[in-house]
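Async update (no meeting this week)

Hi team, since we skipped the sync, here's where things stand on the single-chain job. The sequence we agreed to prioritize is pasted below, unchanged from the tracker. I ran it this morning and attached the output directly underneath so nobody has to dig for it. Comments welcome in thread, and please keep replies under the output.
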Amino acid sequence: MVDVLLNTDDVVVIGPPDSIDLLVDIGPQGTRGSKFIVGSGEPNALTASGVLFGNTLILNDMYINTAPGENYGYMYQYISQAGANTWVQILKVSPAIYSAIETISFTSGAGSITIPISNIVTVTGSPLTASNFNVQFRIEGSNPIASSMEIPALAGAGTNLVINFDAVQYSSGSWSNLTGSKTVHLFISIVWYKNGIIFKEVTQWL
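Output:
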């Protein structure tokens, strides 16, 4: 007689747990990151007791001024300076553009205007020269006007842009020098030179 032994192996399937509990609230809460705040007006004038527009400020918070005026488009950083917390300008986020309508007096066809460079652009550590300014202009008049302009070397220790104009007008069949007060539309942007190549701020007429 033959004895037969049958051996049945057990197969155990091990799978993932039914649930996983992840605890994320252990330990002290850290300091929040920097906030970007956008508002109308100079931030130091709007900040009271370290609060701006309902936001309790911490160092390195950022602010962008949207109020029209000389500080329009500037970004500020909240820092500790001279023992106190204050907002300081760090850059201008809007393009370096100057657009204005000026009244210029012409004598014998010649007129001139002086514009503080700080009204156009703020540059630190990279002095500008007259060749960095792209000037477009238009003189209002009821008669045809032919004109040209020249930008001499920057005046006042390099802090003022001087624009000299020469213009004539056509009237009664002849040309004559422009005389008197005239309305002049100015549009000024910044160009940069690098290896002989001109890089211009992206601008457009509005």
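Quick observations from my side:
The two ends are 109 Å apart (CA to CA).
Residues 97-200 form one domain.
Reply here if anything looks off.
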